[in-house]
Amino acid sequence: MNKNTFYIIFGALTFGLLLNSFFIVSEKERAIVFQFGEAVRPDIPVGFHFKIPVIQDVKKYDARIQTLDEEPDRILTVESKYLLVDSFIKYKITDVLTFYKANNGSFNSLNSLLGQRSEFVLKNNFGKRTVKEVVSGERDELMSIMLSSLNDSVKDLGVEIIDFRVKRIDLPSNLSNSVYERMRTERQRLAEELRSEGKEIAREIRAIADKDKVVILAEAYKQSEQLRGQGDAESASIYAESFSQDPEFYEFTRSMKAYVETFENKSDVMLIDSDSEFFKYLNAKKDKE
Fold it and tell me: What would the mean pLDDT of 68-81 be, rounded to a whole number?
């Protein structure tokens, strides 16, 4: 081996050692420096760092918020009713050394442990409540309680639970039909009650309206009769006054009106004595001629 080859090999080894002697930790990472398999520098801060080449090794882990979304869990409520609860967890690494010791640096192992502990928290909290309480009444409070409980249970894993929420709550398929049928029956019963109440109210309103109608018609008839009586009286008074002023003229106009009304239709036929009082003024005209 000549000197040039030796220098090239030596330079390459030196360059490799230099490259292996420093590392960079970004804002998205947490890092641990190991020496012969033992953690000697845990939780390296963000920035540029040096290490002993070959002897020391660096392991980096994602420090961003992670999401765990598993299959729905079968949970029993205080009413002994099973529910399918679909939840998710948002978490991040806060203590990288604890995380490494608890899971050997494996996110798969961590997710498995988180899944088991979240299921325990769900069962513990849902088992104290009814379906109505977990669905609507105390849901926000329940989420807060479960988040706090899960955080307490994962301190030994080196992570912090950012959010723990229930996405969906369903009934098992074998119970859904019976529950829906009960709901449908209850709604139909309620609808019938409302219809019956509506019909009863309608009958009451109709009876009141009929009563008011009779009263209004009676009052209207009474007023009309009073007005008619007043009108007839006033008419009789006017006729009497006119008759007293010129009885002959009054009798004449009344006779003319009677002629017009009697012979209004050409087809009318009336059999009466020509010397009748009815033809008094016609006969008087004839006598004058």
Answer: 83
- CB environment 59-97: b (16+ within 10 A), e (fewer): ebbebeebebeeeebebebeeeeebbbebebbbebebbe
- Round to whole Å and give the CA distance between 103 and 8: 43
CATH fold of 66-170: Tetrahydropterin Synthase; Chain A (3.30.479)
* CA distances in angstroms from 205 to 119, 212, 216, 219, listed in the order given: 58, 10, 16, 21
Report the alpha-carbon distance of residue 191 to residue 216 in Å, rounded.
36
Helix (H) or strand (E) holding 117: helix 107-126
CA 221 to chain centre: 55
Domains in the chain: boundaries: 3-62, 66-170, 246-288
- With tokens 């991040």, the residue in question is 92
- Residue 104 near residue 157 (C-beta atoms within 8 A): no
| Residue bearing the bigger pLDDT, 178 or 120 | 120
Instruction: Quickly list DSSP for 193-262.
Output: HHHHHHHHHHHHHHHHHHHHHHHHHHHHHHHHHHHHHHHHHHHHHHHHHHHHH-HHHHHHHHHHHHHHHH
Collapsed DSSP state (helix, strand, coil) of residue 186: helix
The amino acid at residue 36 is: F
The alpha carbon dihedral of 44, 50, 55, 59 has a sign of positive
Residues β-bridged to residue 87: 166
pLDDT tens-digit readout, 260-278? 666 666 666 666 666 666 6
